Amino acid sequence: MAKKKRYLSATLSDGYVKTIGPTAAPLTHYWRIVAQLHNGRTEVFWGHETSHRAALAKRAPAEEAAKQRGWRSFDFEVVALQEYD
To answer: Which DSSP category does 51 fall into?
Structure first.
């Protein structure tokens, strides 16, 4: 029997709401990196994971990317996903 599809949403601290779905994947957390570049622009990277720990593990690669790509700074945020109908 197929798993039930569900819709998920994540509300970040700046009020941005990300909607994911329909999905049957066991996702629990959403992560986002907002990188400030030296030319004044920003780049946004995001993803979702099956645990809080897995989402937090994205911070170390973000720090490495900041060094390699020469980002001025970056913000990293992880929030829990909420299921809705």
So the answer is: S
